[in-house]
Amino acid sequence: MAKTLDKVDVVTVGVGWTGGIVAAECAKEGLKVVGLERGERRGTQDYQRIHDEYRYAIRYDLMQDLSKETITFRNTRKEKALPMRQMGSFLLGEGLGGSGTHWNGWTFRFLPYDFEIRSMTEKKYGKDKIPDGFLLQDWGITYDEMEPYFDKFEKTAGISGETNPLGGKRSNDYPTPPMKKTPILQKFEKAAKDRGYHPYMMPSANLSETYENPDGQTIYACQYCGFCERFGCEYGAKSSPEITVIPAAEKTGNYEVRTNANVVEILKKGDKVTGVRYIDTATRQEYIQPADIVVLTSYVLNNAKLLMVSDIGEQYDPDTGRGTLGRNYCYQMNAGATGFFDDQMNTFMGAGALGMYMDDFNGDNFDHSKEDFLHGAGIWITQSGSRPIASNPVPPDVPLWGEEFKKASIHYYTRTLFVGGQGASLPFKENYLSLDPTYKDAYGLPLLQMTYNFTDQDRALHKFATERSAEIMKDMGAKEVVPENVLTDYDIVPYQTTHNTGGTTMGADPATSVVNNYLQHWDADNLFVVGAGNFAHNSGYNPTGTVGALAYRCAEGIIKYSKKGGSLV
After folding, report:
1. Which of 328, 401, 468, 525, by CA, is between 20 and 30 Å from 478?
2. pLDDT number for residue 431
3. How far apart are CA 376 and CA 426, in angstroms?
4. Where is the stretch described as Disordered (predicted)?
5. What is the pLDDT of residue 363?
C-alpha cells in the first residue's frame, strides 16, 4: 500500500542541472519544492579518491545500474530490440547532480539557426532542400528570446570562455576568462587561422579562476589534472549542480532532496496531474507525493518513458506520422582524424573542456547549396588528459597486441592528437522512442525502446567533417594522419557521446510538439518537462548549455503558472 505524503507546491523528478535550477528558482520565490532523485547523495567530499580510471572511467561507478534500468535498441522496425546490458554508445548517469557531476564541461549556446532551422532553411534554399522523411521543425522560440537564459546559466556556472565570432549575439562576456591556451591548442589555432577559419577557446565549466556566482556559491579554479569526464571533481572546480544550484535551493529552507526515490508514475486526474508515485529503492516502500506542479527533470530517456508509462500524450506512430511523444529522437555523429607526431607533448595533462572550437562548418555558417546535407559540425581539439588504460593510440599498421603494440603504444601515448568534428543530427521519421513490448525494468515497467540508425544525411556530413578535420591535422604537422572510418550503421557500442535528444520536443504547435516554449505540457498545464528531450533536432554542439538555458526558461514559466495558472502561451 502506497503511503500518501503531504502536498507540496512543486515536485521535480530528478536532481541534476535541470532539477537543481528549477528548485533553486522556485524555492527563492517561496514555493515549497521536493526533489526526487533515484540515486544517492554525493558531493565534493566524496571525490577525494576519484583518480581511479578503472573504477570510474572503465567500470562506470557513477553511472546507472543497467541490471535494474536500461533501454532496448534496434536499428529498424524490422529488427527485434535487445537490452543494452553494459554501457556503450552513451553513458546514463545516476545520483545527485546527474550527468552534471561527471561531464567534461563543454558549455555551448546553440546557434540562431538551430531555433528556426526549418524557416531559415526554406527561406534560403527552398522547401525542396529538406529531404523526404525528415521532420525538421522550428522550436517555437528564437535565439534572441533564449539569450537572457543562456546568460543566466553561464553566470550561475561561472563559465570560462571567449566570444564565438560566428555565434549569436551576446549581452555579456563570459563571467570568467578562457582557460590556458597550451602549445597543443596553439598548433590547432595556427592551422585553422592559416586556412581563414575562426577558432576560439572552448566555453568551459572547468573554471580558469575562482569565482563566486550570483547565488553566493564559490567554484574553484581548475587544477588541470585531466580527470573530468566520468569523474567528479575533488577540487570543486568543475561547475556542477551539487556545488551551485542545489545548495542555493537548500539554503532557502523551501527545498528538500529525497534520494533513493525512483518515480514510476505521474498521477493524473482529468486535465491536471496530481503528483507522482515513487518507490524507495532502499526499503521498497511505495509513496505518493501530491503536488500542485510536477516537473520532469530527469534524463532525456527517462522523461519520455515516464510520460509513456503514465499514458500522458500521444505516442508517435511512424506509419501515420501522428503523435508527438517519442518523435524526433536524435543523436550525433563524431567525425575527425588522428595525427601521429614526432615531438612529445604533455597530453596527460589537461581538463575536460580545455580546447578550441570553430564553427565555420557548423549550422548554416557556410553555403549548403551544393552539399547533400544540412546543418554541419563544430571542428575541435581538446587537451582533456589522456589516461593510460583508455588511451593506447597506435598507427594502423601496428598490431593491436603483443610486443610491437606495447612499444608503439608507449611511444605514441604523448605523440598523438585528435581533431574532431561534432556533427548535427536531424530528425528522421524512422528514428524514435517507444515502450518495449517484451522487456521490463526492476520495478515491472516496460523498458524504453530506441529505434535509430544513421541516415544518408549523417554519412555525407561525417565524410565532409572528417575531410576538414584531416586537413587541419595535416597542417598541424602530423607525420601521419588517419581519418575516421566511413560511417555505416549506428551501433550501441563503442562510446560516442551522451548527447541523446528529442522525444519530448518543444514547439508552437501541439500537433508537432509535446510542450510549449515554457516547457509546459500541452495536455496538462501543471506538468512541465525540461531537458535535451525538448530539442527538435541536435546541433553540432554539446547540449548542456542549451539545457541549462531551457531550465531557467521553464522555472520562469512555473513561477508564472503558480501565480496565475492556465496555459502560458
Report:
1. 401
2. 98
3. 10
4. 161-180
5. 98
Q: Read off the pLDDT of residues 304-334 as tens digits, 9 standing for 90 and up.
A: 999 999 999 999 999 999 999 999 999 999 9
- Residue 537 appears among annotated catalytic residues: no
**Average pLDDT in the 269-279 region?**
98
Question: Which residue among 462, 499, 521, 537 is the active-site one?
Answer: 499
Domains of the chain, CATH where assigned: 3-69+89-125+133-165+178-564 (3.50.50.60)
Burial class (CB in 10 A: 0-12, 13-18, 19+), 220: middle
Q: What is the pLDDT of residues 40-57, one digit of tens each?
A: 999 999 999 899 999 999
Q: What is the rounded (10 degree) CA torsion for 34, 37, 41, 44?
A: -90
- Global pTM reads 0.98
Distance of CA 110 to the CA centre of its chain: 12
What's 423-462 look like in SS3?
Answer: ECECCECCCEEEEEEEEECCCCCEEEEEECCCCHHHHHHH
pLDDT for res 1: 85
Calpha distance 247→237 (Å, rounded): 16
Q: List beta partners, residue 4.
A: 288
Euclidean distance between CA atoms 510 and 508, whole angstroms: 7
